[in-house]
C-alpha cells in the first residue's frame, strides 16, 4: 500500500506560522491528487488545500491568502505553509493522496490518509 507520513504540527500563537509536510512512500506509479484536510472537534473534515489531477491548486475560502500548498514531485511530498494563523485554524490536519501503485507488479488504485497532525493556535 501507500503510506503517508505527516509532520510539522504544533502549538503556535495567533499570527504565527507553521509548515506541515507529508511524504508518500510505497511502490507508487503516480499521484493524481494530493492535499490537506482538517477536522476540528465537533466538525466535519474539510478540504484545506490541494493539488488536483490537472496540477492546479484549490484552497478553502477561509485560508486563501494565508496558506500555501507546494510539492516536491521527486520526493512525493506535499507541504502546507500556514501563515497568519488564527485560533479557528486549530484542528487535526490530515494529508490525503490518491493515484496508482504497484503490488506484485499489478497496478492498483490507492486513496490513502495520513495519521493526522495536531495544529493548535492560541489566542
Task: Walk me through the structure.
There is one protein chain. The protein has 123 residues and is mainly beta. The protein has strands spanning 3-7, 10-13, 18-25, 28-39, 46-51, 57-59, 67-72, 77-82, 91-103, 106-113, 117-122. It contains no helices and 11 strands. Strands 2, 4, 5, 6, 9, 10 and 11 form a 7-stranded mixed sheet that branches. It has a 4-stranded antiparallel sheet with strand order 1-3-8-7, with no helix packed on it. A hairpin with a 5-residue loop joins β5 (46-51) and β6. It is elongated.
List the topology elements.
Blueprint: E1 3-7, E2 10-13, E3 18-25, E4 28-39, E5 46-51, E6 57-59, E7 67-72, E8 77-82, E9 91-103, E10 106-113, E11 117-122
% residues in beta strands: over 45%
Mean pLDDT: 96
Task: List the total number of helices.
Answer: 0
Shape, principal axes of CA atoms: elongated
Largest sheet: 7 strands, mixed
Q: Give the uncertain stretches in residue-range form.
A: none
List SSEs in N-to-C order: EEEEEEEEEEE
Query: How helix-rich are the residues, as a percent range?
Result: under 10%
Distance between the termini: 40 Å
| SS elements, strand count | 11
If you compute it from the alpha carbons, what radius of gyration comes out, rounded to the nearest whole angstrom?
15 Å
Amino acid at each position: 500500500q501507500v503510506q503517508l507520513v505527516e509532520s510539522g504540527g504544533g502549538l503556535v500563537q495567533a499570527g504565527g506560522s507553521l509548515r506541515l509536510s507529508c511524504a508518500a512512500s510505497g511502490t507508487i506509479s503516480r499521484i493524481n491528487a494530493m492535499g490537506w484536510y482538517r477536522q476540528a472537534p465537533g466538525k466535519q473534515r474539510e478540504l484545506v488545500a490541494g493539488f488536483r489531477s490537472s496540477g492546479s491548486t484549490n484552497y478553502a475560502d477561509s485560508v486563501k491568502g494565508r496558506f500555501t500548498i507546494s510539492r516536491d514531485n521527486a520526493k512525493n511530498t506535499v507541504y502546507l505553509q500556514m501563515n497568519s494563523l488564527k485560533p479557528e485554524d486549530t484542528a487535526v490536519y490530515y494529508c490525503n493522496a490518491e493515484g496508482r501503485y504497484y503490488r506484485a507488479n499489478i497496478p492498483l488504485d490507492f486513496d490513502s490518509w495520513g495519521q493526522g497532525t495536531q495544529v493548535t493556535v492560541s489566542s
